[in-house]
Specification:
The protein has about 210 residues and is α+β, with helices and mostly antiparallel strands. The chain folds into 2 domains: about 35 residues; about 160 residues, no CATH class. It contains 3 helices and 12 strands; from the N terminus they run ααββββββββββββα. It has a 6-stranded antiparallel barrel with strand order 1-6-3-2-9-10.
Length: about 210
């Protein structure tokens, strides 16, 4: 069968402009894919500066609990979902839980004019701070990346275990680089940082009386 040039020309003339646009879009997409595969286009992996362990805290506000035990405990693992995308199980380094608080005038005397007490109007409501460890975090110029997501304060995450599924937000992120501890240093804080004995430790974000309510 001979290919008639006039027939080919007529076939091209029948193609609508919108069809040409679609064909051009497909061609550009294929070209970008080929260049990416051939490493001509910068990928996210090339921006990674290091892979290390990070610790980050998740704040869970207003958790409703009618039982007598905390659903999340240190040493256990919890499954984390980031931006509705399932990630993996992470180790729980620390978990703090406290009832909702209210401020009342201090009628017992003392230096403080006000005291914090349990809020009876919000029974069964608790605030929690859960400290998690990820040993496979990627460090980029823009921060730590976990599961393809930048871990930053305010990031919404979901923690899930055998008896719970709780939504929270990242409230602290730290890159952990374990180092030998000299004799004049001691271990402090939820992340296990060291603090020289002749210096005062920094405020503990897990101290519920001061940071939760």
């Amino acid at each position: 069968m001979k290919l008639n040039f006039n027939d080919f020309k007529d076939a091209l003339a029948e193609i609508k402009p919108i069809d040409w646009i679609i064909l051009c879009g497909i061609f550009v997409a294929l070209l970008v894919g080929v260049l990416t595969f051939a490493h001509f286009r910068g990928t996210a992996d090339k921006q990674i500066e290091a892979q290390t362990t990070i610790g980050f805290q998740v704040f869970l506000r207003g958790v409703t609990l009618t039982g007598t035990e905390s659903p999340i405990n240190p040493g256990e693992k919890t499954f984390i979902t980031i931006r509705n995308v399932p990630y993996t199980d992470l180790k729980v380094l620390d978990a703090k839980i406290d009832t909702k608080k209210t401020i009342m005038p201090n009628t017992r005397g003392g230096k403080e004019p006000f005291v914090m007490i349990d809020d009876a109007s919000q029974a069964f409501l608790y605030d929690m701070i859960v400290t998690l460890i990820d040993e496979n975090a990627k460090i980029t110029k823009d921060g730590a990346v976990v599961g393809g997501n930048k871990i930053k304060i305010g990031l919404p995450v979901t923690l899930e275990g055998p008896s719970y599924k709780l939504n929270g937000t990242v409230s602290d992120v730290r890159i952990l680089q374990p180092q030998p501890q000299p004799q004049n240093q001691q271990n402090n804080g939820a992340y296990g940082e060291t603090t020289p004995q002749n210096q005062q430790p920094q405020p503990d974000v897990n101290k519920q009386e001061q940071n939760m309510g």
